[in-house]
Structure formats: C-alpha cells, structure tokens
Design a protein that fits this description.
Layout (H helix, E strand, L loop, with lengths): L26 H15 L7 E5 L16 E4 L5 H11 L4 E7 H5 L3 H10 L3 E7 L2 E2 L5 E2 L8 E2 L3 E2 L7 H7 L4 E6 L3 H13 L3 E7 L15 H7 E3 L1 E6 L15 E5 L5 E6 L9 H13 L3 E8 L22 H4 L3 H11 L1
Parallel strand pairs: 1-2, 1-3, 3-4, 4-10, 9-10, 11-15
Antiparallel strand pairs: 5-6, 7-8, 9-15, 12-14, 13-14
Helix pairs in contact: 1-6, 2-4
C-alpha cells in the first residue's frame, strides 16, 4: 500500500535526508523532524529549497533533512552572508538556515544582527542548547550564569537572549519554541516559511550529553515545567479553507501575511499583541525576571519591506542572466567614469 502523499504527489520520505548521527534524544532531532513535516504539509518541492548552516551540532542538521534540495555548510558564524549571496542569486527559492547558539550568538553575532536588519525572506532557526556540544561541553553565549560544567568551572556571565537580539536588530518575525513541543514548533515553522522577511525562531533544544541539568532552562525537565505559551497558534495557508480544529471558544486574533495566509492566535492567560515591539520586549524581560520560558509568536510585522523590495532587481534570477545582460555596455561605463571626474 503506497504511503500518503501531499498535494504535489510527494511522500514524507521525499523530505528526509541522510542517516542521522546526532545523539539519541537530542532536541535537534525534533527540530529537523518538524522542518520536514512543515515542508511536506506546505507542499514545498525539495528541489526549490536551499538549506544553509555554519558549524556545530545544529549546523549538521541540513545533512539529515531534505536531501533532494540544495545545501551549503559554511564557516563558523558565517552562514548569514553565505545565505544572503545565494538569495540574491535566485529569489525564487525557499531559504532555510539552521544555526546554533554558538554559531549565532558567539562567533556569528555580528552577522546574525545584520541579517536581521536586512530582512531577507528566510527561515532562521537557532537550535539553542546553551553549550558547545560538538566540542564536548564548553560554555556558549546562552549558558546561564552560575551553571557549572565538569571541566569548565562556573559560568560568570549573563546569557545572550537570541529573541532580544533579533528584536533589537529589527527582525520582522521573532518566535521562541521548545523542542519538546512539536505541535507549536511545526506551526511556527509553517508560518515562518510563508513570512516575506527574516523569521527567527529560537528553539530551546536540550543537549542530553552535556547540558540536560534539571534546574537549568535548557533541560527537558525545566522547559516542560516552566514553559509559558503566549497563545495557542494555528497556521492557515491561503489555499486551504480556514478551519480551527482544536481551539475552544475564546478571544482570537488573526495576523494576515503577504500571501493572505493567516496566523491565528488564541488568547490564553493574558492580552498580548504580537505586532507590538514594545510588548515583545516587555514579555521577554518579565520572563527573564521570573526565570520562565515564554514560547510562541513573540513579534511579527507582515508589512515591512524585505531586502529585495529595496532594490530595483529584475524578475529573472540573477544566476540565469548571461554575461551580455550582466555586463554594462562601454558607453555606460564611460558615462559613470565621467561622473566621477
């Protein structure tokens, strides 16, 4: 009996990658699984997707998913500039970057902040486990102050909050999720893939080998006990009838994206407007003060121009233009030179 297929005739197996060599129980495995599920459910053709990564456990993820798509594994912390160049070359493709807290918040913090402010149409996922797992357990920029590692001593510094950094850098879609909450994570990924701008999702992704301490934010136990969802979230693609299956009666807010897809948010215990940057900063500060893990869609601006809206680019992908169309004629070069005199 054949496997179930999506609307473009592909099976879930068509979205898989090479055999996974990450540790059993690693939160990154859950992230990879939800990316594949989201692409399958959105009917994205793997050949029209590009995967980017840097260095680290999380940056190995592109190997384990979407093997029929294009993939680039770059230098440590340099994934954003690699991705930006590829996106300019062909704007017709769907772009997925997966990084880690070391790759993004340590060596790559400068590139991360600049890719946020440039706002290209890209899903940027951070597998945030608070530790350098690939090199066997050193502090990262998101390790909590006061945490002690066997060979590293005790962390002296306050951690970098990736969502705070994304907001401060004017990212147009900022969310946080937990690898142990697959339904929420998948809905956020689907919405992010349809957002016409940079979509940053900080995913708390426990490292079962080096940093799964019960009392620390990056552990499964702590995240389950202290997760505070802002809302129940459902993503409704534009090509499907709008139906809410699981929501009980309550206050609902719709956020329409550029292609008329809808992010539908059901209020839980507080009134929250995800289109307000001020409220986004406030809720993150309150969560830090009370040592809670706030998850959900923290901020979205569906109307801010993307990188490509700021340039007078031709519709045809630049990587398909021949030399005759890319090189300016001699007359134009002479005219520019005259302007410089």
């Amino acid at each position: 009996m054949p496997d179930e297929t999506n609307d473009i005739g592909l099976e879930r197996a068509d979205y898989q990658g090479s055999p996974n060599t990450l540790c059993k129980g690693c939160g990154h495995n859950a992230i990879i699984g939800q990316i594949m599920s989201a692409c399958y459910e959105l009917n994205l053709r793997p050949e029209e997707i590009v995967r980017y990564s840097g260095i680290g456990c999380s940056s190995k993820a592109p190997t384990y998913m979407l093997k029929r798509s294009f993939g680039f594994n770059g230098l440590h912390g340099r994934m954003p500039s690699l991705a930006l160049g590829a996106m300019f070359a062909d704007r017709t493709l769907t772009n997925i970057g997966m990084s880690g807290d070391g790759d993004t918040a340590s060596i790559g913090i400068g590139q991360f902040k600049h890719i946020c402010r440039r706002n290209p149409p890209m899903l940027y996922i951070v597998g945030n486990n608070g530790v350098y797992g690939l090199t066997k357990g050193q502090f990262s920029a998101t390790t909590e102050a006061g945490v002690s590692f066997k060979r590293q001593g005790t962390s002296r510094y306050l951690p970098v909050d990736i969502c705070m950094e994304a907001l401060a850098s004017n990212a147009s879609f900022v969310a946080r999720s937990f690898a142990g909450d697959p339904k929420q994570l998948r809905q956020l990924i689907k919405a992010a893939l349809r957002h016409q701008g940079i979509s940053v999702i900080d995913v708390i992704s426990p490292c079962v080998s080096f940093y799964n301490f019960a009392k620390n934010l990056h552990s499964y136990e702590y995240a389950r006990e202290h997760e505070i969802p802002l809302h129940e979230l459902e993503f409704v693609p534009t090509d499907h009838q709008i139906m809410i299956k699981d929501f009980e009666a309550g206050t609902v807010r719709n956020v329409k994206l550029h292609d008329d897809s809808i992010i539908r948010l059901k209020k839980l215990d507080k009134e929250y407007d995800p289109t307000s940057r001020w409220q986004a900063f406030k809720v993150l500060e309150e969560a830090e003060e009370h040592h809670q893990l706030v998850t959900g869609l923290i901020y979205v601006d569906p109307d801010i121009p993307s990188t490509f809206d700021r340039y007078d680019l031709v519709e045809e992908p630049l990587n398909r233009l021949g030399n005759g169309r890319l090189r300016p004629p001699r007359e134009s070069i002479d005219q520019i030179n005259q302007m410089m005199l």
